[in-house]
Design goal:
Blueprint (H helix, E strand, L loop, with lengths): L1 H7 L2 H5 L32 E2 L3 E2 L19 E7 L4 E9 L3 H16 L1 H8 L4 E10 L5 E10 L4 E12 L2 E10 L7 H13 L3
Antiparallel strand pairs: 1-3, 2-3, 3-4, 4-8, 5-6, 6-7, 7-8
Length: 201
């Protein structure tokens, strides 16, 4: 289960592997800004954030989107608390706005089908994906959840994901911890997502 939880924690990073659709260098522009630790959903212990790295996380496993993650035009920042709560923001700049639109659509499809895919890959696992609607920010952002439980081990995890776009720039935010959907700060995560998209440019 620990292996599965590690993979779940990087599902968002894996999904961004679909940015392989974007192979040409982005036009010169100011780099998109990232969330600060204080802009993640409130937690019982403070959030800390890494610096912004170029490329994608090293442990970006292909859990729900089996594609290689390209480092070109992609950057990320990871977030942690003293408890079992973590997150990541990954931002990529597409060659054209049409490419960005296509990437957002593919990522949304991947997230929507993540639960059934995990259940097929892990017999006995219970995994439910849900859509939590579109947010009115720039060209739009969409929020999803992934609720997993292993009855044999007695461990459950909840993850929130969002995909947002501002022009050619696509950002992906993930929040995760042990627990169920009822334990997740869905309203606060929506606010975090809006902030993330607004900060891109």
């Amino acid at each position: 289960m620990n292996k599965l939880r590690t993979a779940l924690a990087t599902a968002a990073a894996a999904a961004l592997g679909l940015a392989a659709l974007v192979t040409a260098p982005a036009q010169a522009a100011a780099e998109p800004a990232f969330l600060a630790a204080s802009q993640m959903p409130p937690s019982s212990t403070p959030w800390t954030a890494t610096k912004v790295f170029t490329g994608v996380p090293e442990n970006g496993g292909a859990l729900c989107a089996p594609y290689k993650i390209p480092a070109q035009n992609t950057r990320y920042r990871e977030f942690t608390t003293e408890l079992d709560t973590n997150g990541v923001q990954i931002t990529t700049v597409a060659r054209t706005e049409a490419d960005a639109v296509k990437l957002v659509g593919t990522l949304r499809k991947s997230l929507a089908g993540c639960g059934p895919l995990l259940e097929r890959q892990n017999p006995g696992l219970q995994a439910v994906s849900a859509s939590h609607g579109k947010l009115a920010v720039e060209e739009g952002a969409w929020v999803y959840s992934l609720d997993t439980a292993d009855p044999q081990i007695g461990i459950s995890d909840i993850h929130l994901f969002s995909v947002g776009r501002d022009g050619r720039t696509v950002t992906f935010v993930r929040w995760g911890q042990m627990g169920d959907l009822k334990d997740a700060p869905l309203t606060a995560f929506r606010t975090t997502t809006k902030t993330a998209v607004n900060k891109l440019h």
